[in-house]
Specification:
heterodimer, A: mainly alpha, MetI-like fold, two-stranded antiparallel ribbon, 1% strand, globular, B: Rossmann fold, Rossmann fold, 3 domains, eight-stranded mixed beta sheet, 26 helices, 24 strands, 33% helix, 21% strand
Chain lengths: 336, 717
C-alpha cells in the first residue's frame, strides 16, 4: 500500500510540471500584459513602458521567464513559485497575487466543498433508491429531476435560483436568502448562531445551484452501477447465504457500487470549478471565479497562471485522492 | 466443532419424513413487452434426504429458473405459481425475513461462474464467516475457525493463508471450492448446484466435483445438480430429470433414463453427444431445428416441431408426465418414488428398443461399423500443407508505472512443432492457458513469432509483408469460437459472407450466386441472405461463420473451439457439417479444442499441449487407446462419460492443483508440479530428472510421440 501510494504521488509530479509548462506557454503567447499601458492616451513614454516591462520581467526570453516563475532565482524577490511568490501583477505593484488567491481560495473551496459533499450524498441516496425501485414512479420522478438539472446551463440555473430567492424573500417579507455577495464580513464578531444564519443565507442558493449540476450526473452513475451490482452473482450468493435484504444492499451492493463513482467524482472536479466561476459571478461572490475574470480583464498573466496552476493542482490532487481511495475500496488494485 | 453442528442439525431433521424438498406444479412467468414468457411450466419433483437429483437441459430450458424460484432469488417482476416445500415448509412467497432463515440454513446454492460469485472487496474468510454468522449466534473468532475448517474439508491447500486473501488471488477452481464451503457452512439439507463446473477446465472440474461429494458426505445434504453436461450427471446423481421448453419431459433413475429413454428429446440428446467411449466412424445424430421460443410455444408437445415421430395428437395435446412401466396401463406419476421412471410423450411405448439414429436418421444408410482397425485412410503420406518448427511466442509483462519496464514474460508457446497434412484434421487440445489458441494464431501469421518458423507449402510465412501475405490468406481461413461476437451485427449475412471475396477483389460479378451456394452448402436457406445475424440461432450463426471462411475456397481451416459455445443438440449438426465439408471440398482442419470427446470424434491426429509445450502427439486411435503421457491420461480420465455405469466404475487418474502461471513455468518437466506419477510413483532419484531435465518429445513408434521421462501406456476407456 505504501509503495503504491508513493508511486502514485511520484507519478503526479511529472504531470504537475507538464501542467505548469502548458499553463505558462499558453498564457504567455495569448495577449500582451502591457496592452492597457500602451493604449493609454496620451501615449506613455518609452521609459514608462520599459519600466513596466522590467517590472513584469517581459524583457527576458520565454524559457528564462518560465524558470524565473518557477524558481524566482535572479528575480526581484516578488516571483518564484517555489519561494511562495506568484509574480508581479499588472494591477499595480501593490497588488499581491499570492495573498489575493489565498483569500479567495477559501471562499471558493467552501462553496465547492459544500456543493460536492451534498451532491455526493444526495446522488448516492437517490441513485440507490432509483436502482432498488427501478421503473417505479419514484425512479421516474428522480430520473426526471436529474435530467432537468442536467439539461440546464449553470448560469441559467443560477439566475433562476437567484430570482426565486428574491421572490421568496418578498413573499415572507424577510431576507431569508442573501442573493448578493458571500457575506463573509457581515456577521464577524457576532454570536455563533447569527454567524451560522448569515452563512446559511449566503451559501444556500449558490451551493444548491452548484450541487444540482454534479448531483444529476452522479446520481445517474450511481443508479447504473448499483443496478449492475444488484444483478451480480455475488449479490445473489449473499442472498443465498441467508443474509437479510438490507444487509445485502449495504454490505455487498453499496460498497462495491461506490467504486466507479470515485473516479467519476474525481474527474468532474474540473467541471465543478467551472461551475463555481459561473455561480460566483451570478451571485457576485469575491471568490476565485471573480479573481479569474478580473485577471483576464487586466491581462494579468502571472495572476492567470497562478490561478490556472492552482486549479490544475486541485484537479490532479483530486484524482490522486481518487486513485488512493480506489485502492482502499478495491483490493484488486492494491498489490499491482 | 463439526460434530456439535451436526447433532443440532440432525435433531430438527428427524422430526419430518425423509422428503427434504418437494416441488409441485411450479411455474414461473416473466412479463415482457411482447407478452408473458412462461420460463417454467408445472415442474414437480421430490427430493429425499441424501439423494442426488440431476436436472439436465439445454440453455433456455428453464432449469436454472426453477431453482432460483425455489430460493426466492428471481427478480421481483417474475410471477411464481405453485409450491415448493423445504422440510415441509412452504418457501414460495415468503417475505424477506422468513426466506432468509431458510436460505443458507436449510437450502444452499452454488452458482455457475466462480469468478463472479464472490464479492471482490471482502476476504475469503470474511465471506465464509458471514455465512456462518447469518444463522448462528457465535463469536466472529468461532465463525472464522469454522471457515478454516470448511476450507480444509473442500480441500484448499494452506487454508489459514487463504482466509486472509481476496477472491482475485485465487484460481477459478479454488474459488468454486470456496463457494462450496459457503454452501455447506450451516449443514444445509439441500444443496442446489447450478452448473457448478461449466466454467472450469476438465481436470479442475474433477477436483471440484470431488469437493462437492465431500461436502455432501460431511453434511448429509441432498443435491440438485443442474447441468447441460450429461457426462457430469451420469457420474454424480441417483435420479435425473430432463427439461425442455420449461417442462420436465422425462424423469427417472439415472440408469433408466440413460439406457432406456422414453422421450424422443432425451433420446436425441444422448444420441447427439460425441462420446469418448464411442466409435469414431459413427456419425453423430443431431436434433433438427432449435428449441421453441418461449414466447410462442406450440399448443401441443413442445418438442413436436423437432420430433420425427410427431403425429396429429402431439401437435394438439400436451402430453403429461406418465409412468413408463410397460404395458400395465399408464397411470399418472406419483410424486417421484426413487425407482419410478416417467416420461411426457404420447407414444413413449414406441421408443422401447429404439436408438437415437433409428429415430432421427431413419432410412439413412449407415455403414456397418468396421471391425477392429479402421482401414488406413491413404497408404501414401499426403503432402504437408502447413508446417511449424519450434514455434516460440513470449508476451512481455510490463510494469504498471509510466516507464512500462519489461518485468518478465509470459511463455505462451515454447517450442511447438507440428505438420498439418492435406485433407487431414489435426486437433490441438489442452486446458485454458496452454497456448493452443496462440499457436493457431501463430500458424496463420496473425501475431508475430518470437522465434521459430512457419511454412505454408514450403514457403516461410514470417517476415512477409501484409501485402505479400494477403494472397496466402485466401488459402488459410479461420472460424471463431463465439458465433455471437464474430459476426458484425450491422451487416447482412450476404455481406458478411461476401466480404472476404470483396477484399480479395474477385468474383463480385457472381458473388450473389456464390453466397447462395455457400449458404446451401452449410445447410441454411439461401433465401435468408438478406437477414441480419441476430435473426439466427447460435448454431446457425456458426454455420454462417463457416460459410464466410469457405467463401475464398481455402485449403486450410483453423477452427478455434468452433462448437464449444453451442448446445449439444446443435453442436452435433455443426460437427457433422464440418465432416461433410472436409469430404466434399478436401479441406485440412486445424481443430483447436478443450473437449476431448469432440476431438476424438473429428480428428485424425491429436497434439496435446500443456503450458506452451507439446506433451504428446499421435493418431486419434493411438492417443485414446494408449495414452502415454500422464497429462493426457489425466485429461482423458477427467472427461465424464455419459454412461452411468461406466462412469462410476472407471479407473481415474486425478491431477492436483491448478495450472502454474506461464510467466513462471516449473523447471524441467512443466507438468511435474501436478503429475500424479511424479507425486506417487517415482523415487527421489527419478524425480530429480523430472525437476532438472525438460523431457524431449520422443517417438514411441508408429508416430506416437510423447514428452515424459517415464511414460507408460495406460488403457482408460
Amino acid at each position: 500500500m505504501l509503495v503504491y501510494t508513493m508511486r502514485r504521488v511520484l507519478g503526479a509530479i511529472p504531470v504537475l510540471v507538464l501542467a505548469s509548462i502548458l499553463t505558462f506557454v499558453m498564457i504567455d503567447v495569448s495577449g500582451d500584459p502591457l496592452a492597457d499601458i500602451r493604449m493609454q492616451q496620451p501615449p506613455p513614454t518609452e521609459e514608462v513602458i520599459q519600466q513596466a516591462e522590467a517590472r513584469l520581467y517581459l524583457d527576458r526570453s520565454m524559457p528564462e521567464r518560465y524558470w524565473l516563475w518557477m524558481t524566482g532565482i535572479g528575480g526581484n524577490g516578488d516571483i518564484g513559485l517555489l519561494q511562495g511568490e506568484f509574480g508581479p501583477s499588472t494591477q499595480g505593484p501593490q497588488y499581491e497575487i499570492g495573498p489575493a488567491i489565498a483569500e479567495r481560495l477559501w471562499t471558493t473551496l467552501r462553496l465547492v466543498g459544500a456543493a460536492m459533499v451534498f451532491a455526493l450524498g444526495l446522488a448516492i441516496i437517490t441513485g440507490v433508491i432509483s436502482a432498488l425501485r427501478q421503473y417505479s414512479k419514484l425512479d421516474y420522478t428522480l430520473t426526471f429531476v436529474g435530467f432537468l438539472a442536467l439539461a440546464m446551463p449553470t448560469f441559467w440555473l443560477a439566475g433562476i435560483m437567484q430570482a426565486a430567492g428574491v421572490k421568496f424573500n418578498q413573499l415572507v417579507g424577510e431576507q431569508v436568502f442573501a442573493t448578493i455577495g458571500d457575506g463573509r464580513f457581515r456577521a464577524q464578531g457576532e454570536p455563533l448562531g447569527d454567524q451560522l444564519v448569515n452563512a446559511f443565507a449566503h451559501m444556500a442558493l449558490p451551493t444548491l445551484v452548484l450541487m444540482l449540476i454534479s448531483f444529476a450526473s452522479w446520481s445517474r452513475y450511481q443508479r447504473t452501477s448499483m443496478l449492475e451490482v444488484m444483478n451480480s452473482d455475488y449479490v445473489r450468493l449473499a442472498r443465498a447465504k441467508g443474509l437479510r435484504n438490507h444487509v445485502v444492499i449495504r454490505r455487498h451492493a453499496l460498497r462495491t457500487a461506490l467504486i466507479p463513482l470515485t473516479t467519476v467524482v474525481a474527474i468532474s472536479v474540473a467541471g465543478v470549478i467551472d461551475g463555481a466561476i459561473l455561480t460566483e459571478t451570478v451571485f457576485q461572490w469575491r471568490g476565485l471565479g471573480d479573481f479569474f475574470i478580473t485577471a483576464v480583464d487586466n491581462n494579468d498573466s502571472y495572476a492567470l497562471m497562478g490561478w490556472l496552476l492552482l486549479s490544475g493542482i486541485i484537479v490532479i490532487v483530486a484524482n490522486l485522492v481518487a486513485d488512493l481511495l480506489y485502492a482502499v475500496l478495491d483490493p484488486r488494485i492494491r498489490y499491482e | 466443532m463439526t460434530t456439535e453442528y451436526m447433532n443440532e442439525e440432525h435433531a430438527t431433521a428427524e422430526t419430518g419424513d425423509d422428503v427434504v424438498l418437494e416441488v409441485s406444479d411450479l411455474s414461473v412467468t416473466f412479463p415482457s413487452d411482447d407478452g408473458p414468457l412462461p420460463a417454467v411450466r408445472e415442474v414437480s419433483y421430490v427430493l429425499r434426504r441424501g439423494e442426488a437429483l440431476g436436472i439436465v437441459g439445454e440453455s433456455g430450458s428453464g432449469k436454472s429458473v426453477t431453482s432460483m424460484a425455489i430460493m426466492g432469488l428471481l427478480p421481483r417482476n417474475a410471477r411464481v405459481e405453485g409450491s415448493a416445500r423445504v422440510l415441509g415448509q412452504e418457501v414460495i412467497g415468503l417475505d424477506d425475513k422468513a426466506i432468509s432463515q431458510v436460505r443458507g440454513k436449510k437450502i444452499a446454492m452454488i452458482f455457475q461462474d466462480p469468478l463472479t460469485s464472490l464479492n471482490p472487496v471482502y476476504t475469503i474468510g470474511y465471506q465464509i464467516a458471514e455465512a456462518v454468522l447469518a444463522h448462528r449466534k457465535v463469536s466472529k473468532q468461532d465463525a472464522m475457525k469454522r471457515a478454516l475448517e470448511l476450507l480444509e474439508i473442500v480441500g484448499i491447500p494452506s487454508p489459514e493463508q487463504r482466509l486472509r486473501q481476496y477472491p482475485h488471488e485465487l484460481s477459478g477452481g479454488m474459488r468454486q471450492r470456496v463457494v462450496i464451503a459457503i454452501a455447506m457452512a450451516n449443514e444445509p439439507d439441500v444443496i442446489i448446484a447450478d452448473e457448478p463446473t461449466t466454467a472450469l477446465d476438465v481436470t479442475v472440474q474433477a477436483q471440484v466435483l470431488d469437493a462437492l461429494q465431500r461436502a455432501r458426505r460431511e453434511t448429509g445434504a441432498a443435491l440438485v445438480l443442474i447441468t447441460h453436461d450429461l457426462g457430469v450427471v451420469a457420474g454424480q446423481v441417483d435420479r435425473v430429470g430432463v427439461m425442455y421448453a420449461g417442462r420436465i419431459v422425462e424423469m427417472g433413475p439415472v440408469e433408466e433414463v440413460f439406457y432406456r429413454p422414453r422421450m424422443p428429446y432425451a433420446l436425441g440428446l444422448l444420441g447427439s453427444l460425441p462420446r469418448l467411449d464411442g466409435d469414431r466412424s459413427d456419425r453423430l445424430t443431431p436434433i433438427l431445428g432449435s428449441p421453441p421460443s418461449l414466447r410462442d410455444l406450440p399448443p401441443g408437445c413442445g418438442f413436436a416441431p423437432r420430433c420425427p415421430m410427431a403425429r396429429e395428437r402431439c401437435h394438439q395435446e400436451e402430453p403429461r408426465l406418465l409412468l413408463t412401466n410397460g404395458d400395465t396401463g399408464r397411470e399418472p406419476s406419483e410424486a417421484g418414488a426413487p425407482t419410478v421412471h416417467t416420461a411426457a410423450c404420447h407414444f413413449s411405448d414406441e421408443l422401447v428398443g429404439v436408438g437415437a439414429a433409428d429415430l432421427f436418421r431413419p432410412g439413412e444408410e449407415r455403414p456397418e461399423t468396421t471391425e477392429g482397425e479402421p482401414e488406413p485412410k491413404n497408404p501414401v503420406e499426403p503432402d504437408v500443407l502447413l508446417s511449424a518448427t519450434d514455434l516460440v511466442k513470449h508476451f512481455p509483462i510490463r510494469s504498471k508505472g509510466i516507464l512500462r519496464r519489461k518485468v518478465g514474460e509470459v511463455q505462451a508457446v515454447s517450442g511447438i512443432s507440428l505438420d498439418l497434412r492435406e485433407k487431414e484434421t489435426l486437433a490441438l487440445v489442452g486446458e485454458s492457458g496452454c497456448g493452443k489458441s496462440t499457436t493457431a494464431r501463430l500458424l496463420l501469421n496473425l501475431i508475430r513469432l518470437t522465434s521459430g518458423e512457419v511454412t505454408y507449402m514450403g514457403r516461410p510465412l514470417q517476415g512477409l509483408s501484409d501485402r505479400r501475405m494477403r494472397p496466402l490468406r485466401k488459402d488459410l481461413q479461420l472460424v471463431f469460437q463465439d458465433p455471437f461476437a464474430s459476426l458484425d451485427p450491422r451487416m447482412t449475412v450476404s455481406d458478411i459472407i461476401a466480404e472476404p471475396m470483396r477484399i480479395h477483389g474477385d468474383g463480385h460479378r457472381d458473388a450473389r450466386r456464390r453466397v447462395k451456394e455457400l449458404l446451401e452448402l452449410v445447410g441454411l436457406d439461401p433465401e435468408h441472405g438478406s437477414r441480419y445475424p441476430h435473426e439466427f440461432s447460435g448454431g446457425q450463426r456458426q454455420r454462417i461463420g463457416v460459410a464466410r471462411a469457405l467463401s475464398l475456397n481455402p485449403r486450410v481451416l483453423v477452427l478455434d473451439e468452433p462448437v464449444s459455445a453451442l448446445d449439444v443438440s446443435i453442436q452435433a449438426g455443426v460437427i457433422n457439417l464440418l465432416e461433410d465439408l472436409q469430404d466434399e471440398l478436401g479441406l485440412s482442419y486445424l481443430f483447436v479444442s478443450h473437449d476431448l470427446s469432440v476431438v476424438k470424434h473429428i480428428a485424425d491426429r491429436v497434439a496435446v499441449m500443456y503450458l506452451g509445450k507439446m506433451v504428446e502427439t499421435a493418431t486419434t486411435e493411438q492417443l485414446f487407446s494408449a495414452p502415454a503421457h500422464p497429462y493426457t491420461q489425466a485429461l482423458i480420465s477427467a472427461i465424464p462419460l455419459p454412461d452411468p455405469i461406466k462412469e462410476r466404475t472407471r479407473e481415474r487418474i486425478m491431477v492436483t492443483g491448478d495450472i502454474p502461471s506461464p510467466a513462471n513455468p516449473p523447471s524441467g518437466c512443466r507438468f511435474r508440479t501436478r503429475c500424479p506419477k511424479f507425486a506417487n510413483e517415482l523415487s527421489d532419484v527419478e524425480r530429480t530428472k523430472c525437476v532438472e531435465e525438460p523431457p524431449e518429445l520422443l517417438d514411441r513408434g508408429a508416430g506416437h510421440r510423447d514428452a515424459c521421462h517415464y511414460s507408460e501406456v495406460v488403457e482408460l476407456i
